[in-house]
Amino acid sequence: CRCSTLLCGDSSVASPDMSSWDLLVDSPALGRRVHLLRSATSASPYFLNSAAAMSLARDKGFAAEAFGASGVPHVPGRLFFANDRHAVFRKPGREPADALEAALDFVYPVFCKPVSGSKGDFAEPIADAASFADYLSRVGARHDAILVQPLIRGVEHRVIVLQGVALCSYEKTP
After folding, report:
1. What pLDDT, on a 0 to 100 scale, did the predictor assign at position 18?
2. Which pLDDT belongs to residue 56?
3. Angle at 115 between CA 101 and CA 140, to 5 degrees
4. Closest listed residue to residue 60, CA positions, set 128, 129, 125, 145
5. Is the dihedral of CA 62, 64, 65, 67 positive or negative?
6. Which of these, 53, 49, 43, lies nearest to 7 by C-alpha position?
7. For 13, which DSSP code?
8. End-to-end Cα, the chain, rounded Å
9. What CA–CA distance (Å, rounded) separates 107 from 139?
10. Contacts for 94 with CB less than 8 Å, ≥ 6 apart
């Protein structure tokens, strides 16, 4: 990607005017809500991105829910918790035992990744239910939740867009 300097904070790039940005994402399924008012964006500590954009970027499950609610095409998936930490605060249905039961009905291979991960850590294709059980035990030691998606093979195109302007695009090949 030729724009790494720009995206990493090139001092010649002015911080964008985000005064016209509004974001309301309500996800009862994930128990999260983001409502960013126009006046709140000017105080964002994030270079180039608003706090709402950073919130979506840090949680793949919430981002998928937000994209779906907004009509943005995305890869469907199911969110499960990878460990029992904080289980007392959650609604039932997505605990590790639920994930293992659901894994019996997955159409394999699937692709699993932590919702808060980065750089491809623990982002893996999973071949069968036994491999899924192993994956869940390994990832649960470091991450609280995972996203299970169908495995889509092929070339991946990424486009970096800021305020409607494509700054950069690149291709990832398998």
Report:
1. 42
2. 78
3. 55
4. 145
5. positive
6. 49
7. S
8. 17
9. 21
10. 78, 79, 80, 81
For the record, the structure tokens of 143 come out as: 């991450």
Torsional sign, CA 172, 141, 97, 94: negative
- In the chain, what's the furthest Cα-to-Cα distance? 53
Instruction: Answer whether 127's CB lies under 8 Å from 113's CB.
Output: no
- Report which of 159, 160, 136, 158 is spatially closest to residue 148, judged by C-alpha positions: 136
> What is the pLDDT tens value at each position of the chain, 174 positions in all?
333 323 333 333 344 444 444 445 555 555 555 544 444 444 555 556 677 777 777 888 888 888 888 888 889 999 999 999 999 999 999 999 999 999 999 999 999 999 998 888 999 999 999 999 999 999 999 999 999 999 998 888 878 777 777 878 888 777
DSSP letters for 83-150 = S-TTGGGS-TT-SHHHHHHHHTT--SSEEEEETT--TTTT-EEE-SHHHHHHHHHHHTTT-SEEEEEE
Instruction: Give the whole-angstrom CA distance, residue 110 versus residue 103.
Output: 10
- Tokens 């840090």, residue located: 58
Pull the structure tokens for residue 72. Answer: 């943005």
Tell me the HSE value of 169 on the side-chain side, using a 13 A CA sphere.
Answer: 6
